[in-house]
Amino acid sequence: MQKPTNSPFSIFNSQLITFIRKEFYHVFRDSKTLLMLFGLPIIMITLFGFALTNEIKNSRIVICDNAKDKASQRIITQLEASKYFEIEKTLWSHTQIEDAFRSGRIKLVVVFPANFYYELMHLKKAQIQILADASDPNTATTLTSYVSTIVSDYQKELMQDNKFPYQIIPVTRMLYNPELKGATNFVPGVISLVLMLICVMMTSVSIVREKEKGTMEILLVSPMNPFLVIIAKAVPYFILSLINLTVILVMSVYLLDLPLNGNIGLLYFESSLFIITALSLGLLISNSTDSQQTAMLISLMGMLIPTMLFTGFLYPLENMPLPLRIIANIVPSKWYYIIVKSIMIKGLGFSAIWKESLILCFMTFFLLMVSVRKFKIRLE
Amino acid sequence: MDVFLNNIRKTYNKGSIIAVDDVSFGVERGELFGLIGPDGAGKTSIFRMLTTLLLPDSGNGSVTGFDIVKDYKKIRNTVGYMPGKFSLYQDLSVEENLTFFATIFNTTVKANYDLIKDIYIQIEPFKNRRAGNLSGGMKQKLALCCALIHRPTVLFLDEPTTGVDTVSRKEFWEMLKRLKQEGITILVSTPYMDEATLCERIALMQNGKILSVDTPNNITGQYQSALYAIKATDMSGLLKELRNNELIKSCYSFGEYHHISLKGENADNHSKLIASLERNGHSEIECKKIDATIEDCFINLMENKTTS
């Protein structure tokens, strides 16, 4: 046998690098994998993004103008001018409003109290009630904020002629969903969903493919350390996932006008942690299955559904029964979702998310231990 | 002994399927050894145990002095293995596959190029082609190159010629002979009996058991009864009649002839048989005495096993 001339360290490296390069060949030469890898996130972001904007245009809102004075008329004209609303003016009682919400015909109701202008002028303070159907939280939040903006514009208008500030206080009530799930929630959700799906599915399928095609037999009967095989499998998908994350972030900031309030370095650091969690899960699946189809099915069914249900971006976790809330705790994307929201939307630092990060660390450690123990150095 | 198996037994499905049943044999250093037997005989299981991919249920074995259970890492460092299924990366080119396996085995293509040169120059014109687009024969050549690239001391080839055309099969055996001269011990398995004579020694296998281990010449030489090849116009009718004839010890179709062996050593039996066949309306009967092939011996051994 030919004795290696290089030092063991460089041999270790060249084996790994060659293997990683081979993995990249697999990815870039398979159009289906490429489509999955980069098509899926782009499609999801675009779908979510445009579904959202379509929803808000021409929403039917009802205005109950009990005041019918100068101030209320002015605000109503502004609302009518907006392209987002289709206005219906009636005088409804609260029960009528309730019924209209239940039938789903209207999205939002603005109620002006009687003596609106009078109170504003004399008490320097008036209330306006905004009721929104928050069973569709994204729409409700967006519509409410539009109305509030229009109201505060009017407030500024008044301020110009008077030194004393007039205060119009929009009293907002979110019906059916008091937790106030915002429109910005879905991007962190999509990020966790996409990373979860791609990392788990791609790693599990790529290792199982070696078993199915018989190349694992040759790799096992070689001097290469089996754990090096695992590392070499994980590295390309780790890099590709980070690229994916960048694509999603760029799209959501520039296409969907989402804020990126927190530290981007921290976001990437936490994302790397989550990607490693997902990769370990993929390894575990690949060590427990023998065919690409089974691996694909387990990844899809086992990851997609819990991620959608228990992450909290489609269905608020707070409204779930206790057993489901407990189950949600073992879904890694739940914790990552909280982290991304805290960094991206709230702009918080590491001190606010260290608990979630620690949970992800423990999960990764546990998954890695189990998959290493389950890794077969033989065929059975 | 370079490769050595002692009372190896292997079962699947918790013992319900016996794949290898009490098998023992040894292979000398530099020998070209063949495992011959039909599908399901247990050839692949033996190869996988020798290459440390499977653990035997009982028995022990060694490859170049290393125990197949305990020293699996050392065996994996030294042997070359070519599985029965084409197991290279179909989406990588010929050259990429070769370089990949060279690196995995801690070596370079350049370092051992002289060993694979004769084989590699045949596929070199296609070195940029994806392995998946190669013909069956070329795939085998590439797989052999990849299995040889680290200059293994023992080479395991599991059914290397299955699904390969006749010309490529012939070439493949030529290559094996050349490799033997390099001092590499070669274990090869094949379901084709005609390839048995190309090995130095063979083990005939059936249902997980070894029927015989010897040189091909010794095995054919041990065939005891006289063997005839017989042909007539109505071949299927002839076979049916021969089976019911009391002079016949065994009979089976073999290419364009039926091979028969007669009971007893009486020379009259032969002419008696021809006469009775002619009486029963068979025409253009051609019957000649032949030397036994490996396949005849295999069938003979198999029948002895079932009757005993």
Tell me about this structure.
The complex is a heterodimer of chains A (380) and B (308). Chain A is of the alpha/beta class and 380 residues long. Chain A folds into two domains: 9-50 and 183-374, no CATH class; 57-175, abc type-2 transporter like domain (abc type-2 transporter like fold, 3-Layer(aba) Sandwich), CATH 3.40.1710.10. Chain A has helices spanning 8-29, 31-56, 70-81, 94-103, 116-122, 137-161, 186-213, 215-220, 226-254, 264-288, 292-310, 322-328, 332-345, 354-374; strands spanning 59-65, 85-90, 108-112, 125-133, 167-175. In chain A, helix 6 links the parallel strand 4 (125-133) and strand 5. In chain A, helix 7 (186-213) crosses helix 13. The longest helix of chain B is centred in the middle third of the chain and has 16 residues, at 166-181. In chain B, a hairpin with a 2-residue loop joins strand 4 (58-63) and strand 5. Chain B has 308 residues and is α/β, with parallel strands linked by helices. Chain B has ten helices and 14 strands. Helix content of chain B is 35%, strand content 27%. In chain B, helix 3 (94-104) runs parallel beside helix 5 and helix 4 packs antiparallel against helix 5 (136-148). Chain B has helices spanning 43-50, 72-78, 94-104, 113-123, 136-148, 166-181, 216-221, 235-244, 268-279, 294-307, and strands at 3-12, 17-27, 32-36, 58-63, 66-67, 80-82, 154-158, 185-190, 201-206, 209-214, 227-231, 248-254, 257-262, 286-290. In chain B, the strands form three sheets. Chain B has a six-stranded mixed beta sheet, sandwiched between helices. Chains A and B meet through helix 1 and helix 8 of A and helix 2 and helix 3 of B.
